[in-house]
Amino acid sequence: MEQPSSSQPASTPGVCLPSSLEQAKAHKLPSSAFYIPDFISEEEERVILDKIANAPKPRWKQLTHRRLQTWPSDLVKNTLIDAPLPQWLEEPVVSRLLSIPLSAPDGDVSIFTASPHHRPNHVLINEYPPGVGIMPHKDGAAYHPVVCTVSLGASLCLNLYRTKDDGTLDPSPAWRILQEPRSLLITRADLYTDYLHGIADIEKDEDLSAETIANWDLLRSRQDFESGSSQRQTRTSLTYRDVLKVSKLGNKLGMFLKR
Description:
Blueprint: E1 7-9, E2 16-18, E3 33-36, H1 42-53, E4 61-62, E5 67-71, E6 79-81, H2 87-90, H3 93-99, E7 122-128, E8 134-137, E9 146-152, E10 156-161, E11 175-179, E12 184-188, H4 189-193, E13 196-199, E14 204-205, E15 230-231, E16 235-241, E17 245-247, H5 250-258
Parallel strand pairs: 6-17
Antiparallel strand pairs: 1-2, 3-12, 4-5, 5-7, 7-16, 8-13, 9-12, 9-16, 10-11, 10-13, 14-15
């Protein structure tokens, strides 16, 4: 008897979604991590990158070595102004996130079913030039503990860190996750609450192999990394989350934003 396929092509060429998130588990990580290499198509990637590049200049927040955008707005005291995401951030990403069941028997249960708004309502866009990363950190209490990250443009390694018994950071990553362009990485539960994540400030990711990369078996293009290294290029990430507190008092919060 023929076995059912573990993944199903979406209606868009170049997109291949799993039949459930169980099929996308990174088994070297805790069971709270999933990786889908072909979550969006090359054309969808181009469209989203074009929208990001052509966003109004006030949307960009310039940091020392990189820049970012927040949609629909920044948080004020861990609270989001009630406003919709723009259509280009809704489609195709949000509809696909909600269409993939957590497990095959529970077809109506998505990764956001247990979140307050049952869908992501906030997107952080980070642009990482070669050699630029971000210090190990936790995302904090403003969000439901589910993070969905779509990578665009280039690959890089995300490092996950443990905290030692004395509360200090263990400088050696507990795991490394290689994020390819057009991929989706989902982390939740203990990976959200108990571990820090960061990106090293390096020009090239080294020591890439099945032994060192937690999602190696799920990669789309393992052959591209068989040399053991990957030169960084500019990578853009879309981080989708559900902000717990949402206020309809847009005018009052808007006054705080203008200060």
